[in-house]
Design goal:
The structure is a homodimer of 273-residue chains. Chain A is α/β, with parallel strands linked by helices and 273 residues long. Chain A is built from 11 helices and 9 strands. Helix content of chain A is 45%, strand content 13%.
């Protein structure tokens, strides 16, 4: 079965495998692109992680994740910016296509979503020069509105692209079907993202009905309600032909053997994506 | 404590009380406005429900709910339209300020959200003449995007107002903080709703962090992250000064004595709304 154009976000198998085992398993299944998470990279050591990825011939479609800018005070915001600069350094060392940014939700104890959004814009502006210097594109990932309070206060592609417009070169978006499939403005915003060269990543993951948990009940493609082929057609019409990256947070799939998860990703990628 | 301008959606105490007991309890707490659900009204009988509401001096801020237009086939869609016409009749008999519409999600087995949205627009157009004839305003309630698949494929105030623009007179929106608080376009759309006279209801309910269940873990005002005073200021600046209606789906609050729930609604209405 076709594996070209398929990438695996290593969160999908994070309970089964550490970075080395996950990368070797992907290679064994004929998958040539992965997106590791920082905790996985740091547990392995960034130099060693880079070597494992290179030795296995892996394209690194991204590093997950930077962001989380809002904080209760100036010291917290400065620490977040420092942390993002380190993430950019690691993304450069891994030769990642981009650093994926989950921008953060409300500051602790705050009800001011406008304030959080302002902190995000400031945090992004603060890290863009370093990202440009390191040649690491920053991919803002709009998250589903159900994460607005605690994970990301950028919840639509329109909002993410407005930020890109403000920030200029070196910034784009990671478009995850799971987060944006519901948006009535999606076709127009995908077109806009493509026209301005902002699409840096395309993640796939299905919306289950019912969804039993806000964070960890995401679905394998085909098990939910998203029309992946129609979605991908919009992405390609907008000029993006990069990998489709499977990123599934799921207590269900984390409980299965990693090889079964990868085989299923490949099957479904062929069947419905 | 002030109860003027406070309404109770009877879903908030649906596990504790039927319609009569809930209405009498509200009256006992000095609350003068309620919004019953159709199953409650039908269990009591619509004539008897109207009498109970009138005898207790209750304003009826709405009837919940019509909608649910998408269906697998033409017969199903026609049945939904018939059902909505009956809901309009009942809303008229109860002298409700509006019929609240939860428009429905994807048709069973379908992944076509555009198709669902078209069915919603068609269904609405089919019932508007009867609603006008009965002088029952239709209040389209945009639901949080996490309900797009299974409850309502109208998920932003902008989308609801676009439908109002298409449909003309006799149609407006029910704005529930819980569903729209996250929307970066909210201030502009509330202003638009007010300028076109479309605000028919204002519901209040808090977003909890963490939210443990997609449907039944909504919060009492003050227990979550929504800034109700800032929200209400936008609503009033847009020209709406009608009741704030507490609608909380919560396994937690449903497990407490109804009088405690109503007392808490009154306290929080005074403290944070």
């Amino acid at each position: 079965m076709r594996t070209e154009g398929l990438a695996i976000n290593l969160a999908t198998v994070r309970k089964q495998w550490g970075l080395r085992a996950a990368v070797e398993a992907c290679a064994r299944h004929g998958i040539r692109a992965v997106d590791p998470w920082r905790d996985q990279v740091e547990a392995t050591g960034v130099g060693e992680a880079a070597r494992i990825l290179r030795d296995n011939g892996m394209r690194v479609t991204g590093l997950c994740r930077g962001g989380m800018f809002p904080a209760a005070d100036a010291d917290g915001r400065a620490a977040a910016i420092d942390d993002n600069r380190r993430a950019i350094d690691h993304a450069a060392e891994l030769k990642a296509d981009c650093l994926v940014l989950v921008v953060g939700g409300l500051a602790p104890g705050s009800r001011a979503i406008d304030g959080a959004r302002a902190m995000v814009a400031e945090g992004l502006a603060a890290i863009v020069p370093h990202a440009r210097a390191c040649k690491v594109p920053l991919a803002i990932e709009p998250l589903h509105p159900m994460y607005a309070a605690d994970r990301a206060c950028v919840n639509t592609l329109a909002h993410a692209l407005d930020l890109c417009d403000l920030l200029g070169d070196g910034v784009g978006v990671a478009i995850d079907c799971y987060h944006v499939w519901w948006d009535p403005d999606l076709p127009r915003q995908i077109e806009r993202a493509g026209a301005t060269g902002r699409i840096l990543a395309h993640h796939i993951c299905d919306w289950l009905v019912p969804t039993r948990d806000l964070l960890n009940d995401r679905g394998m493609m085909g098990d939910g309600v998203i029309d992946f082929r129609a979605f991908r057609a919009m992405i390609e019409a907008a000029g993006y032909h990069g990998p489709q990256e499977v990123e599934i947070f799921s207590a269900d799939w984390w409980a299965r053997p990693g090889d079964e998860v990868l085989s299923t990703c490949i099957e479904r990628y062929n069947a419905v994506c």
